[in-house]
Amino acid sequence: MFEILEKKSLNPTVTLMKINAPRVAKKAEPGQFIILRTDSEGERIPLTIADYDRSAGTVTIIFQIVGGTTEKLNHMNEGDCLHDFVGPLGRATETEGLKKVAVVGGGVGCAIAYPVAKKLHELGVEVHSIVGFRNKDLVILENEFRNASSKFVLMSDDGTAGEKGLVTDALKKLIDSGEKYDRVITIGPLIMMKFVCRLTKEYEIPTVASMNPIMIDGTGMCGGCRLTVGGETKFACVDGPEFDGHLIDFDEAMARGASYREFERKAHEDACNLFKEVK
Amino acid sequence: MPNMSLVKNEMPVQAPDVRNKNFSEVALGYTEEQAIDEAKRCLNCKNKPCVTGCPVQIDIPAFIAKVAEGDFEEAYKIITKSSSLPAVCGRVCPQETQCESKCVRGKKGEPVAIGRLERYVADRHNALAETAVEKPVPNGHKVAVIGSGPSGLACAGDLAKKGYDVTVFEALHLAGGVLSYGIPEFRLPKTIVQKEIEGLKALGVTIETNTVVGKTVSIDELMKYEGFESVFIGSGAGLPRFMKIPGENLNGVYSANEFLTRINLMKAYKPDSATPINAGTKAVIVGGGNVAMDAARCAKRLGADVTIVYRRTENELPARAEEVEHAKEEGINFRFLTNPTEITATEKGWVKGVICQQMELSEPDASGRAKPVPVKDAYFEIEADCVIMSIGTSPNPLIKSTTDGLDTQKWGGIIADENGLTSREGVYAGGDAVTGAATVILAMGAGKKAAAAIDEYIQNK
Fold first, then answer.
1. Which residues pair with B294 in a beta bridge?
2. Dihedral angle at the C-alpha atoms of B450, B451, B457, B459, nearest 10 degrees?
3. How many angstroms away from the CA of A189 is the closest CA of chain B?
4. Considering only CA atoms, which of B161, B170, B70, B156 is closest in space to residue B120?
5. pLDDT tens readout for residues A62-89
6. Buried b (16+ CB within 10 A) or exposed e, B137-157
7. Residues with Cβ < 8 Å from B142, sequence gap 6 or more?
8. pLDDT in tens, B395-439
9. Using CA atoms, how far apart are residues A169 and A132, in angstroms rounded to an integer?
């Protein structure tokens, strides 16, 4: 069993949890993910690793409440145990040979972008972080990003935090001002990553995007997480989750991501109602 | 006097139009009278041809003689001398090509129903009140087993009986491998699988679920830092193949592995399951093996109208005849000499249909079966909102890619000698990870062989 050692609400729909998982903590690297189940009847959901502490044996996850399972997870507290917690899965972010990188995060994707920025920063890479949120209430990890970046740009859709606009606007501005990146790493909603990749393709800047598709086992067994990259089918769980952003078929990924949207909406509603009854 | 009836005692089953709406076991098992009557059909041949057909050489005539006497516990003891999972094998072994194919009674009439008798004996034993298992005396040696499917469980069981401290590492949250995620409840109830696993735990075997060897921990680390003197790799062949045709990534297209895992492991067939499944209203299953039959019968039970498409004819179907028969009885349609070339889409990106090409048979190919070749310009579309690709699996590359010096075949299978020894000292492998997708009993046999070899290796170190 995997105890929740710490729980913190980052914004009304995003929660951070520190989990006791020594075997996972020992091996975890930025860019990798875990799969968890809240209880013995729970579904398996993948979450990217937000942080880890090898000596303490802990792994940090950050999740947005979007469906039944994340709603249930959010109702668990410090001292409770997750039924299952397996990882680290997938490949780690490649950092070799990088000198100057733009990390572009959006929404809860920033939770995954942060450990990547942090690792690059620790390796001595010049990191420019551009993060975007819908409004100021949803901003997460601002200080953490500031500490891990030599340049930090905060964007919001409505202008209530940082500058008003999209992350692509900020990225374009930086590139146009003469910043030369040897890689852009983008993590966030598919639609955002699609446009970041479209922009960087114009400028011919190598770009990787971190994918978070529907998954069951996370070891290459089901193929549910498949996506098309450069005309070839890849499994995000073992071949990724990071891929060459200029080759990903984002439209297909978006369609696949919506496979169970109706089921998920209903499951979320049911879970909410259940917790209301309990109260 | 032996029972000279030319036919087997029939196995009671759920009626087809009842069972195709539920996930309870199809075959209901013999009664005591039927078992004894069937056992009396055995001639107790001196040369025991049936035993030569059994991958683990169960002393079949001996256990059947005990059934005929009504001494079922003794029969159980005889079976378990050679087999680790009798309740499982009695259900899923292809007896018709193994033991029963060698039965003298089969020359004129039907062979003795060896599989059904094995199942009866195992079920009868399992229904008894728990008897305390005597834990073997520990011998102080640690062995790691990777994967808790048939080969891993068999290997772990044999080693534990010899006093080894065995830890089985399982990537999923539940032990059993293909027995848990692959074979459906209606063919192999999961309580039976868990009972076999509980039996191993009672022998002292530790099972660590949620541990992906190659990710969470590597073989080298297990041997170097955790004190395991030998490792058995029974990681199976779990990587699904796709056809690489247009439309395969549309919503509503599953690999059989994903479809079956959602149903069997995640219980998505239950109305209150947290895991979704979508079998649609018209499901097309591509492939003709046992896994295709399982996927088809699951889709049927979820309410879909189901069609299996297969590129050869009924004669070449690789699935067991019994499974094909059951599928047909349950109302599953078959379209032979049919090969998908494209999956078409609705405007919203969901499956709309499967475009197929008519095939015909020509000369035999490398597998010895008649090769299907396309009939020029003969295309047609089958309407579908769910497509399940069941065209085989290959070994998972995770272990190979994280274990130095472990040699594999080009197609990914681990190279091992007849005792399971790999290119790495102390590292053994068996089952589908070595052979590619095969049967439960062959995997079990490989696990047992490797257990004997591991014992010899450690004792002579």
1. none
2. -170
3. 19
4. B70
5. 999 988 899 999 999 999 999 999 999 9
6. eeeebbbbbbbbbbbbbbbbb
7. B164, B165, B166, B167, B226, B227, B228, B229
8. 888 888 889 899 999 999 999 999 999 999 999 999 999 999 899
9. 11
Distance CA B284, CA B334 (A): 10
Please state, in angstroms and rounded to a whole number, the distance separating the CA atoms of residues B278 and B244. 22
Q: E strand or H helix at A103, and its extent?
A: strand A100-106
Question: Do B173 and A43 make contact, defined as CB atoms within 8 angstroms?
Answer: no
Is the reported ipTM for this assembly greater than 0.85? yes
Residue A279 — pLDDT band, cuts 50, 70, 90?
A: low
Alpha carbon distance B356, B377 (integer Å): 11
Strands, E assignment, B147-260: 165-169, 206-208, 230-233, 239-240, 253-255
**Residues facing B394 on adjacent strands:** B239
**Does the CB of A83 have a partner CB in chain B at under 8 Å?**
yes
CA distance A154 to A106: 10
Task: Give the chain A residue whose CA is nearest to the CA of B248.
Answer: A233
pTM of the model: 0.94
Q: Max Cα separation, chain A?
A: 57
d(CA A268, CA A261): 10
Q: Mutate which of A215, A219, A251, A265 to test chain B, going by most B C-beta atoms within 10 A? A: A219
**Amino acid in position B172:** L
Cis ω for the linkage preceding A241 (within 30 of 0): yes
Task: Return the SS3 of B87.
Answer: helix
Is B274's CB within 8 Å of A256's CB?
A: no
